[in-house]
Amino acid sequence: MKKNETEQKSWSQCITLIAIIALFFILMYQSPFRLDDLAWGSERGIERLQRGFRGYNGRYIGNLIVIILTRFPAGLRVLMEMAILVGGIWNVWILLKRNNDILMLFLALLLAAPPAIFNQTILWVSGFSNFVVSAVFVFYIFRICMEMLEGTVDISFKTGVVHVLLIFMGQMILETGSIYTIILLFFTGICILVQKKKVPIYLSAYFIGACAGAAVMFSNSSYRAAVLGNGDTYKKISISGDFFQLINTWWTKYTTQIFPNWIQNIPLINLLLILCIVILCFWSASRFSGMIQMLGAFFAAWIVFNIQKPDWNSLIPYGVYLNAIVGIVWMIYVLVSIATVYKGNIIKNLIMDCQSYTKYRPNETTGGIFVSWRRKEELPTGA
């Protein structure tokens, strides 16, 4: 009976996945080219390519992808985009330990994205070539990092070379993706250094490849022009004035543009993220699970209140800034909560590795920073 229920569940998930893929295909096929897509698909795109995208941006791989996609027939273009999407979903599925239930939740979150964000990332070909392709690469790097931390795969020389080349090319798609990749590889190296007291040569090669790719991207003259204030409106980076003026400029940009458009504007995704964290707490051995759930209830109430009273922050002094500060705390909460409930308590184990290495010894059969530690009294004599 149980076997039949499992088979029925697998079939229902398979049908749901096919339906989601078909929905994506229809939406992407019916979506017309935007103005930017028409420019990339015309002679202007070839002219930018012939100039090496000099003075435009350093997204060399992303620009090549959009030039290719805008020149294919609609059906073939959408099939290529679907292949990229499926590659990203496959990496997510591996990260989720091949859990089909959580994968369905991830896809539901993807479909629940606000229409404006969905249009600019999935349906807009130029946006897809930068945002989605970059996200797929970041998930790919994330999977590699998790496999290295868990020690579940052996990296051969050929595999390492392929990874280095892909990481190098992936750094020339989107600026934020490049930064995320460097941060992921850096902290992976720190964790492995704490765990094994050495960093694998292939991880060092990955990091060097990521830094080299980012260096190629940011060497484009458009970024120097942006720093000097000579770029387009959205390409200007203000660094004039003293340090406090600079911080004030960036803070104003965050509170008036980044927070309301990219954090506050996705309440459904934020609520579902809280739900996932609260559910994970039930399986976590962390002693902080109760506190995480309580804070999750607070942030859920904050999100719902912002939906019901979107203009409340304009009715009190500094309300906009207060709401933006809560948004920063919210992002910290998400990162810390996931790190805490994932595999028990990563942060606690990492601190134990750093502070107690001379007092404790890891279990020889499993070892590493993600396992429990024996007390010193339990160690053999002379340890």
Please trace the helix and strand order, writing H or E for each element: HHHHHHHHHHHHHHHHH
Which structural class fits the helix and strand makeup?
Answer: mainly alpha
Query: Beta-strand level of the residues, as a percent range?
Result: under 5%
Mean pLDDT: 77
| Biggest sheet details | none
Number of helices: 17
Enumerate the spans where pLDDT stays under 50 for 5 or more consecutive residues. Answer: 344-348, 355-383
User: Count the strands?
Assistant: 0
Distance between the termini: 53 Å
Described by the principal axes of the CA atoms, the overall outline is globular
The helix content is: over 70%
Question: How large, in whole angstroms, is the Cα Rg?
Answer: 23 Å
Describe the protein in words:
- This protein is mostly helical and 383 residues long.
- The protein has 17 helices and no strands.
- Helix 8 packs parallel to helix 10 (175-196), helix 10 (175-196) packs antiparallel against helix 11 and helix 14 packs antiparallel against helix 15 (289-308).
Short description:
With 383 residues, the protein is mostly helical. The chain has helices at residues 2-30, 35-40, 43-50, 60-69, 74-95, 100-111, 115-123, 125-150, 157-170, 175-196, 201-218, 221-227, 243-262, 267-283, 289-308, 319-341, 346-355.
Task: Pick out its properties.
383 residues, mainly alpha, disordered C terminus
SSE inventory with pairings:
Blueprint: H1 2-30, H2 35-40, H3 43-50, H4 60-69, H5 74-95, H6 100-111, H7 115-123, H8 125-150, H9 157-170, H10 175-196, H11 201-218, H12 221-227, H13 243-262, H14 267-283, H15 289-308, H16 319-341, H17 346-355
